Amino acid sequence: MSEFKAPLRDIKFVTEEVLNIHEHYANLSGADEATPDMVSAILEEGAKFSERILAPLNRVGDEQGCTFNDGVVTTPDGFKEAYAQYVEGGWPSLAHPEAVGGQGLPESLGLMVTEMVATANWSWSMYPGLSHGAMNTLESHGTEEQKQTYLTKLVSGEWTGTMCLTEPHCGTDLGMLKTKAEPQEDGSYCITGTKIFISAGEHDLAENIVHIVLARIVGAPEGTKGISLFVVPKYSVDANGEKGERNDLSCGSIEHKMGIHGNATCVMNFDGAKGFLIGPENKGLNCMFTFMNTARLGTALQGLAHTEWSLQNSVAYARDRLQMRALSGPKAPDKAADPIIVHPDVRRMLLTQKAFAEGGRALIHYCSLLVDKTKKGTDEEQAEADELMSLLTPIAKAFLTETGFESANLGMQVFGGHGYIAEWGMEQNVRDCRISMMYEGTTGIQALDLLGRKVLMTQGATLKRFTKIIHKFCKEHKGNKKAKAYISELDKLNSQWGDLTMKIGMKAMMNKEEVGAASVDYLMYSGYVVLAYFWARMAITAQEKLAEGTEEKGFYKAKVQTADFYYQRILPRTLTHAEAMLSGAGNLLDMAEEDFLYV
Amino acid sequence: MKILVTVKRVVDYNVKVRVQPDHKAVELNNVKMSINPFCEIAVEEAVRLKEQGVATEIVVVSVGSKACQETLRTALALGADRAIQIEAEDNIDSLAVAKLVAAVAKEETPDLIIMGKQAIDSDNNQTGQMLAALLDIPQATFASEVKIDNGEAQVTREIDGGLQTLAITLPAVVTTDLRLNEPRFIKLPNIMKAKKKPLEVKTPDELGVATSSNITVVSVTPPEERQGGIKVSSVEELVDKLKNEAKVIA
To answer: Is residue A341 part of a domain?
Structure first.
């Protein structure tokens, strides 16, 4: 029932008109191929693939799910064929170096394609998504030999990858992990242990699966300082670089879960499997962060994907569904009733989704340009981009998945009772979206990372990098009368952001629990301010286009109107978060554990 | 064997077209444009013939403004070897296009010319026929199957009564119908390779062809919007309305 159209126009608006991506590519080393016509041709083809091949499999994936039989996982009908076509089309290779068979295009261009792929079918997109993370880890930390052995096959898409972190007793707290690595005489390691919640851990899409595994070398220190990273292939690689003998690892079962049924979530048993060390001994967690940042941005993208999908389908329904008359009198007198899009509350729900979809898109692609710079920028650019990414990654991950879930929920609400019926696809979207607030670090963990590690531990320096950018932007547009409403509010919130940080920092010096108590409100507040910055930028760009004269009046007017909606109806949420985060840790910690329940 | 394929840049088939307020043309500003689906099928057929070892070179031609280079690149990404853009206004009529392509064909001397049977914007369905006449070579239109053997093309055509199979000697013009093939998805590396393939620009002057038109568009009108129905109170009233208002029965 549901449909998907790749939001090409809006991707172009954000990347070309707001973020000046072509100027960015012109200055980025190694991005010579990413000319405007090339970008456009690639996006067109990516859109075609997403719309025609992946979107129709979204519901199939949910209904059939993956099946498990004696260690073998079968993906839903069509997933395998779609993956073969994806590989045939060369898509896995887009943003990887030419030396290992990649196309060497910028990461940000890859993310534009990924956005469309992810929105069309999130569960399917996780298979190549996990590979991408594994590839980034090998690219950054693998030896030349490891790159040649594994990376070429991953880049071509013949093999896929996973990341094996979680164990039954430890997810967030990886310091507790038990998987053991015993050094062997030939330089390899014997890996023993159980990993759970391994997305794409076993499936039938590719002939070999390359697991990137966190384990503790025998005798290594306890805690996070004794963890190392290993590459452990499902099948060993023979002398010719091809799939060899089966390694001693297997999938024990797959989880039955609320959503993302099309993606296999596996228990992986390593029973003395042969693995190889990646990076230095005991530095596994540091190496892992390379992957974690990609993965977190990928999960932020999931929030955007479900928001966009929800928006597209609920707008179509609201324009079609006839029910009740507008309060001010019939708007469609020739019909039995007005389409529900005439009702203010339905519009509130649609505009909320629109504001988060388009605002989130700007944030995601802004981050992707930073990723380009962390990889290929000058030293100075790299340092700045790294710092900005460290601040924005937890915000994008938690805020866009929280608003993604809100949007998916609103999209379902627009359908009324029909939203609850599977056939319309809206409830699937809600279920699929829900996990995004948990995996790759829950909202709570992202909030602690943001406020504790990124902001307070740097004495606010990391935050200042970004508030300075907003401050400069506000100063630049101070004289712009049309943008006054945005700029004055943004400027105010931006300095309040700094003030709030100071206040919490002071409280935290007295009581460390204040950090945890304030963190989620702090993160959400930060998210609203960040999106306010992008909405101001988008509104100003749109106003300029309207002033120049354009054929696309409706498109640009809607940008300005959505910005107004965001500033007037969404931004007031910052008041609540500001008050809540300053209310102190007492209201959370004072209650005795035994008083939580009287049963 | 060399194959010449023509491609046209048209409004994308997914776009709901709107007529300009002055009723002179269809609105093309900020409308998504793509390769004409029939032309895409023509390119695909040529590429398949090359993959089968029947053809050795595919030259793709488009007539239009600079924007049609994008369409030529699409054809190159699908698998054509080189491209020729004939720089002209976008809306010149079929005869002018046929003359321009004929001039190119005389230079290129292809063994086979494959064209879409029509473009989905103006639906003329005449350029292929005109081209065959101008070159004085055989034509087989509305092809749903093409086999090349011994200097001859066996073409199955979709006609009103069913299918008709013709054998024509090469060189010849074949125009494609929708069932001929299903064009492939373009591969990412091929998009990048397409940019490096040669694209030559020629002008009508260089080809010695005048593109002046004998056709004037008087007006363009969208289909009338469907009117709401009414309830009639009796069979007599219905018959009366069918006779006198709708005039569908005598």
So the answer is: no
Taking alpha carbons only, the member of A28, A199, A192 closest to residue A107 is: A28
SS3 A330: coil
Which residues of chain A make contact with B192, given a CB cutoff of 8 A? 33, 38, 103
At residue A366, the pLDDT reads 98
Stretch A82-102: mean pLDDT, rounded? 96
pLDDT band at A292 (very low <50, low <70, confident <90, very high): confident
What's residue A2's pLDDT? 64
Q: Rounded to two decimals, what is the model's pTM?
A: 0.93
- Return the pLDDT at B174: 98
Q: Which residues are bridge partners to B3 per DSSP?
A: B58, B112
Give residue for tokens 């024509």.
B168
Q: What is the pLDDT of residue A352?
A: 98
Contact B185 A42 (CB under 8 A): no
* Burial letters B40-73, b for 16+ CB under 10 A, else e: bbbbbbbbbbbeeebbebbbbbbbbeeebbbbbb
Chain B, nearest residue to A92 by Cα: B188
Q: Is residue A535 part of a domain?
A: yes
CB distance B192–A48 less than 8 Å? no
> Distance between CA atoms of A113 and A8, rounded to whole angstroms?
10
Handedness of CA A424, A427, A431, A437 (dihedral sign): positive
> Sorting pLDDT into bands at 50, 70 and 90, what band is B224?
confident
Structural domains in chain B plus CATH codes: 2-245 (3.40.50.620)
DSSP A220: P
Continuous H helices in chain B: 37-51, 68-78, 94-108, 127-135, 188-194, 204-207, 235-240
- Nearest Cα of chain A lies from the Cα of B240 at a distance, in angstroms, of 25
Q: If you compute the radius of gyration of chain B from its CA atoms, what whole number of angstroms results?
A: 21
* ipTM of the prediction: 0.88
Relative to beta strand B9-11, strand B33-35 is antiparallel
Q: What is the pLDDT of residues A111-155, one digit of tens each?
A: 999 999 999 999 999 999 999 999 999 999 999 999 999 999 999
Question: Domains in chain A: how many in total?
Answer: 1
Q: What is the mean pLDDT of residues A295-305?
A: 95
In the numeric block, the tokens 């990273």 are attached to A229
What is the C-alpha separation between A230 and A216, in angstroms, rounded? 10
Cβ of B30 within 8 Å of Cβ of A552? The answer is yes
For position A126, what pLDDT does the model report?
97
Helix (H) or strand (E) holding A195: strand A189-199
In 3D space, the residue among A72, A73, A58, A74 whose CA is nearest the CA of residue A123 turns out to be A58
Measured between beta carbons, the chain A residues lying within 8 angstroms of B191 are 38, 41-42, 45
C-alpha A496/C-alpha A514 separation (Å) is 18
**How far is residue B78's CA from residue B45's CA, in Å, rounded to a whole number?**
10
Selecting from A41, A53, A551 the residue whose C-beta is nearest the C-beta of B191 gives A41
The reply to whether A579 belongs to the active site is: no
Radius of gyration (Cα) for chain A, nearest Å? 24
Q: Is residue A92 part of a domain?
A: no
Interface test mutation site (partner A, options B31, B188, B191, B195, max chain A beta carbons within 10 A):
B188
Cα–Cα dist A107/A377, whole Å: 12
Assess if residue A334 is contained within a domain: no
Angstrom distance (rounded) from CA A343 to CA B35? 41
Instruction: For A244-293, give the DSSP string.
Output: EEEPSEEEEEE---SS-TTS-EEEEEEEEEEEEEESSTTBHHHHHHHHHH
pLDDT at site A506: 96
Range of the domain at A515: 447-588
Contacts of A7 (CB under 8 A, 6+ apart): A116, A119, A308, A312, A361
Q: What is the mean pLDDT of residues B148-154?
A: 94
SS3 A359: helix
Nearest CB neighbour to B185, from listed A35, A89, A551? A89
